[in-house]
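User: Could you check the structure of this?
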Amino acid sequence: MSDVDKSSILTILTTEHYTLQMVRTATITDAASRAGHLLTTISASMIAMGFVAQLVPPEVLLVMMLVISTGLFLIGLATLFRTVELTIEDVQAGLGINRIRHVYGDLEPSTREVFVRQMHDDTTGVQLDAGQTGWRNARRPRLIGTALGVSGLVNLVNGLLAGVIAGAGAGLLDAGLTWSVAIGAVACAAVISGFGIALGRIGRRGIAPITTRYPRNNPN
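Assistant: Sure, the predicted structure tokens are below.
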């Protein structure tokens, strides 16, 4: 390969590398911003209900909690699915950068020892880049890493909102405080678990179309 060819290839690769890095920055910023807006909206709603609680009877407060929490839950669902899409886009961009970094090493083998980030576009490479292999004693470190991400946080918030909705609904049906809390806790756990499993499958389907070209067992 001539120097001219190498120069042209490096220009193309560095341009694509920069583009993918900008994509990752944009997705992370967007996901964090959406999660922040959701938490701000919930916080403002809780403060408003705190003031109203001093002026209205418990039945009216429960109705308000039910209505407002339902609206917040719907906003949370929209935020959740969008953050999952952004996570998929971020992982795709990360895979592309790893792939380009591998080609850098092929063009100039002496640079292979310089790279700190991964040069492999397989699942292990993604986990190493995300720091998920730090959970050495965990059976599913990738699941833990996903739960600790932005989409996992939004899923947790949505589960808590679902618990509030279920608890408020049970309170309106005269279920009593103990049963209302128990029903809310069950609803919270069910929503977090159910959506966690569903979103994990969506994420795997989003990454599946990408063909692995440079796995870690590649002798090169």
